[in-house]
């Protein structure tokens, strides 16, 4: 899809500039994906070094956000793009805000690893995180993939998966609330894990927002506040 | 400040278009400010009708976000602005995302009013919310004011106030944790209030992000990840 659109430009240089920006977004996306995986791993295994890496990476993520935003501005000012190219550049500028905030949430999770290390580690391996973190890891990976391929169909499919994440979040939250009520010694642990699952749920939201921007760039349709069936009808005509 | 910049345009029509967009942003800002005030009021007083109003307003806020974004795209495509005008339009496009998410957080707070109504209401008047909600209400109001006037100095001052909000959040969170540990019958109430204070804290962040975009539009400086003293040096030269 992308090749066709981008290939329509007369200016070869312009194509290269847009490709450069897209590659930087993919590098940034790869970084926040790794941050997310490592942050959960750090919490589950108590690997403090890994948690420190996540916190350190955030500086690179922030710097990339600023660099890509500047690139987008320069190219808009210089090339005066319209239609698909302009939507893509604006979509990229909004996408990187989502990625930067994904990095922030991963950093919060990593910081929780330090906190859990201070308390006595329990032997549960934080099993409550297992399913939710898998769901979130996949949605983030697939959203970045949809961005890389400008894949509208997959973007629409990904949007439908947010419900599952929300349901799992509510289920784990309830479980943790019960454990608090059963024994007040569980309260601190449960509050810490609640903070982690909230960050995971937010990362799922950011991934969905990226898909919104892919659909917007390719189709010109703003589906941000549309119900699922309306999105399918508008975007896929089904 | 704004008058000088905008006045430099040759096209009177272009000025009008930009003013129209800015006015819409101010209307949207006024709406989310009212949502925030009403949502807290609904929680504190148990006024369910007010909570319903907040939830209802969210549709208008969402529609405004889409309308303003479309306006920005059209004007960029048609007028091919550069320098200040382009930064302002991109800044507006990012600002309204912050405002829309402020509206989402206010809606979450309002939804908590329904939940608290379901439980037995307590007689505490949710005093834990008092100071934090005042701080957040003021920072949001002042950020919108800074946007209206494109006031860089006030934007910088507002950014320094986020620390105070974070500190108050941590203090209330600790207080609520203690109340849970003292008596497990407090757990549900405390979890609900924790959700409210988290939303308030997030609204404070969104307000600060708006100030970042004001500084970016007027000064061309990207201060998003700068420490406070560096912002002052870069933006105010002090």
From TrEMBL, chains A, B:
<feature type="domain" description="PhoU">
    <location>
        <begin position="26"/>
        <end position="112"/>
    </location>
</feature>
<dbReference type="GO" id="GO:0045936">
    <property type="term" value="P:negative regulation of phosphate metabolic process"/>
</dbReference>
<keyword id="KW-0592">Phosphate transport</keyword>
<dbReference type="Pfam" id="PF01895">
    <property type="entry name" value="PhoU"/>
</dbReference>
<dbReference type="GO" id="GO:0030643">
    <property type="term" value="P:intracellular phosphate ion homeostasis"/>
</dbReference>
<dbReference type="GO" id="GO:0005737">
    <property type="term" value="C:cytoplasm"/>
</dbReference>
<comment type="similarity">
    <text>Belongs to the PhoU family.</text>
</comment>
<dbReference type="InterPro" id="IPR038078">
    <property type="entry name" value="PhoU-like_sf"/>
</dbReference>
<comment type="function">
    <text>Plays a role in the regulation of phosphate uptake.</text>
</comment>
<dbReference type="GO" id="GO:0006817">
    <property type="term" value="P:phosphate ion transport"/>
</dbReference>
<protein>
    <recommendedName>
        <fullName>Phosphate-specific transport system accessory protein PhoU</fullName>
    </recommendedName>
</protein>
<feature type="domain" description="PhoU">
    <location>
        <begin position="129"/>
        <end position="214"/>
    </location>
</feature>
<dbReference type="InterPro" id="IPR028366">
    <property type="entry name" value="PhoU"/>
</dbReference>
<keyword id="KW-0963">Cytoplasm</keyword>
<dbReference type="InterPro" id="IPR026022">
    <property type="entry name" value="PhoU_dom"/>
</dbReference>
<comment type="subunit">
    <text>Homodimer.</text>
</comment>
<keyword id="KW-0813">Transport</keyword>
């Amino acid at each position: 899809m992308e090749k066709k659109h981008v290939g329509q430009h007369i200016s070869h240089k312009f194509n290269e500039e847009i490709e450069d920006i897209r590659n930087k977004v993919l590098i940034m996306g790869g970084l926040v994906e790794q941050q997310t995986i490592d942050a959960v791993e750090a919490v589950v295994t108590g690997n403090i070094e890994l948690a420190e890496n996540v916190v350190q990476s955030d500086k690179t993520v922030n710097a990339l956000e600023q660099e890509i935003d500047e690139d987008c501005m320069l190219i808009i000012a210089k090339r005066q793009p319209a239609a698909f190219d302009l939507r893509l550049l604006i979509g990229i500028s909004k996408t990187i805000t989502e990625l930067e905030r994904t990095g922030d949430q991963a950093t919060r999770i990593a910081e929780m690893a330090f906190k859990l290390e201070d308390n006595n580690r329990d032997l549960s391996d934080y099993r409550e995180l297992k399913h939710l973190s898998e769901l979130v890891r996949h949605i983030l990976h697939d959203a970045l993939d949809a961005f890389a391929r400008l894949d509208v169909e997959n973007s629409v499919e990904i949007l439908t998966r947010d419900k599952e994440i929300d349901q799992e979040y509510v289920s784990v939250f309830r479980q943790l609330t019960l454990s608090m009520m059963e024994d007040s010694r569980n309260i601190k642990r449960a509050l810490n894990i609640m903070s982690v699952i909230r960050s995971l749920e937010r990362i799922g939201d950011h991934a969905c927002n990226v898909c919104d921007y892919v659909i917007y760039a390719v189709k010109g349709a703003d589906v941000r506040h549309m119900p699922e069936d309306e999105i399918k009808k508008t975007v896929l005509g089904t």
